[in-house]
Protein: N-acetyltransferase domain-containing protein
Organism: Acrodontium crateriforme
Amino acid sequence: MENPGTRTSLPKPPLRTLTTPRLRLRTLTTNDAEASMRLLTREDVMRWTSREKVETLEQCTRWLEDRTLGKECFNFAIELRGVDGTTGEEGCSGLIGMVGSFQFPGLGYMIHPDYAGKGYATEAVKAIIPALWDHMPCASDDGIGYDYLEGLTDTENYASQNILRKCGFTYCETREQDFYNPTLKQQRDTAFYRLARPGKDLEKLGLLPLKESSEADEPGFVPPIQ
């Protein structure tokens, strides 16, 4: 049985902020549980993931603990910037999505459906990539660190695949029936997209793409992949 203090004893990431022309990305914490409920309680948000939607604030807090506590957690809340440079907008709690990594070299993101189709996810991913290169240890001879980022997405989640391609990721492989989707109630296939660290090359890293995936450009909501 899990020790109740195990999660909370894990290190918290340092607080930091990244900005883009339209967005403010700030370190995600367990204090964001209430605001995150508007995302994680929605079946259409969790549709493409290996997790069911949350039902309670306690479940939401535990979900956030898994993604905010620990030395490899590097996740950010996505907020809109106002015309005066402030965050939030009328009728919005501030948090409209999440982006980051809770286990290297993975990269994930989610956007509330009300804000989908506006390029916010692509803008957030492009902003966090340089910060991830600085934060994530480089690969070394003793097997510590990584020289690439990896985005995993359901093979039918074309909108998510388009975001990864727009951010420079390359399709590398598909693994069939490799995870169970509790929302769709079936085993699903996963498409692997990867991006090499500046100065590195996917081929030399042994991550040469096998074939290009479909170029389908299907609009719509972009769910989390982490």
The beta strands are 17-19, 23-27, 74-80, 95-101, 108-111, 148-154, 170-181, 186-196. The CA atoms of residues 92 and 138 lie 38 Å apart.
